[in-house]
Design brief:
Largest sheet: none
Number of domains: 1
Helix content: 40-55%
Low-confidence stretches: none
Structural class: mainly alpha
Mean pLDDT: 84
Oligomer: single chain
Number of helices: 3
Order of helices and strands: HHH
Length: 73
């Protein structure tokens, strides 16, 4: 179970991204990979384990629901 999340991310990265593009330089591949992860995967791509929410939205929802209430004086 330790590697299941990482394996899922790398599988999506390879199947949805790498196999559809070619990159002239390693630096271009690195930039495009970061853009895929930060822009598409974390902010737009729905995930079934997050009730169809992207990871960034699921984390924001979690943080909002689990905010510490200020202590009563």
């Amino acid at each position: 179970w330790d590697n299941s999340v990482a394996e899922s991310v790398f599988s999506s990265l390879k199947n949805e991204f790498y196999h559809h593009y070619s990159f002239p330089t390693r630096q271009d591949a690195r930039r495009a990979t970061m853009r895929y992860i930060e822009v598409f995967y974390n902010r737009h791509r729905p995930h079934t384990h997050n009730d169809g929410l992207p990871p960034a939205a699921a984390m924001a929802k979690f943080m909002t629901q689990n905010q510490q209430l200020p202590a009563a004086a």
